[in-house]
Amino acid sequence: MSGFNVAPLEKLVEQFEKMPGIGAKTAQRLAYYVLNLPKSQAQEFADAITDAHTKIKYCKVCCNLTDSELCPVCKNQARDHATICVVETPRDASAIENTHEYRGVYHILHGCISPLNDVGPDQLSIKELLARVNPESNVREVIMATNATVEGDATAMYISRLLKPMGIKVTRLAYGIPVGGDLEYADENTLARALEGRNEL
Amino acid sequence: MSGFNVAPLEKLVEQFEKMPGIGAKTAQRLAYYVLNLPKSQAQEFADAITDAHTKIKYCKVCCNLTDSELCPVCKNQARDHATICVVETPRDASAIENTHEYRGVYHILHGCISPLNDVGPDQLSIKELLARVNPESNVREVIMATNATVEGDATAMYISRLLKPMGIKVTRLAYGIPVGGDLEYADENTLARALEGRNEL
């Protein structure tokens, strides 16, 4: 945009460029798209950004994103409140929710223990999780659904060590070949874990 | 996001989903990115959208986007105002500008003649172009740099027929093999045009 110094447009391009996975060309395309929106729709977009920031907060129980005191899952009495699925981010919870297979509730850590990024257990919502699984509550099982990374594994291990003395069943998502995946393309670690976790037919 | 009905977040995701080339997954990723921005930066983003809409208008001469009366190119007396490069969109002008080879000025049509999309000559800034190349002005050459599509060609042809009777030299961008392009991957039309337009070495 060297020759054309349209400051407001360049500012908008910069905003898009900062986004994950958006390069210079895409940022320009998106900025022009926004510029070509009818005024009312552009205002709607700007409002959606501000609204998301002012209206969204953390659920008091599971720390998921919500616009009221409790998130819809924690509020829902039809769900199994004795099973808690622990995930790293709200997006992970939403991915599990989309399977339509899980009827329990969630707990969102908002990250994983990662000494390299200066994230210790205190920065995660582990206190809140421990408060939920106190002896008076009826929690039966905690499913550790952190990422299948070194850090996700370490976080799962750390939390399970805190929960087990309380007599709670702690499980971990199964490792294995992705459904529809070709054996030949699976990496060795995955394949080894799939062998290890083999089930009888 | 079925189970989690966080309305403000879903609204934001929807806004991103409407954008060109942004699918459901990317829209969700971008919405979470915006949500995780510090409040001040989110406000900056929202303001950039509103500002782009309120502050950007068309240059009175070339119809390019600008935040003042005239765009920087039209204002610049060091540029060659006797050569006008006619393009379809502001992005095309910016692409030519980025070559750093062109010292003339631009004219932005804001589209091309396209009966299928109900766009006729009246919807484009052709009147404004004709006003610029009146007999009193010193315009020597008009370069038609519309897209190399059927519609871009037709638009170039239409405008050149209006300009030629006024004694103005009208040229068209060269067709040919892209620089760095392999002959074997060039389509037949491009190759035929490259042959036709061959130059002596």
The strand count of chain A comes to 6
Strand line-up across the major sheet of chain A: 4-3-5-6
Helix content of chain A: 40-55%
Sheet having the most strands of chain A: 4 strands, parallel
Q: Greatest interface and its residue counts?
A: A-B, 57 and 57 residues
Secondary-structure element order of chain A, N to C: HHHEEHEHEHEHEH
Oligomer: homodimer
Q: Report the sheet-strand fraction of chain A.
A: 5-15%
- Overall pLDDT of chain A: 88
Q: What Rg of chain A is obtained from the alpha carbons, in whole angstroms? A: 22 Å
Helix/strand structural class of chain A: alpha/beta
Could you walk me through the main structural features you see in this protein, from its secondary elements to its overall organization?
Two copies of one chain form a homodimer. Chain A is an alpha/beta fold and 201 residues long. Chain A has eight helices and six strands; from the N terminus they run αααββαβαβαβαβα. Chain A has a four-stranded parallel β-sheet. The first copy, chain A, has a two-stranded antiparallel ribbon with strand order 1-2. In chain A, α1 (7-17) crosses α2. Chain A starts with 6 loop residues before the first helix and ends in a 5-residue tail after the last helix. Chains A and B meet through α1, α2, α3, β2 and α5 of A and α1, α2, α3, β2 and α5 of B.
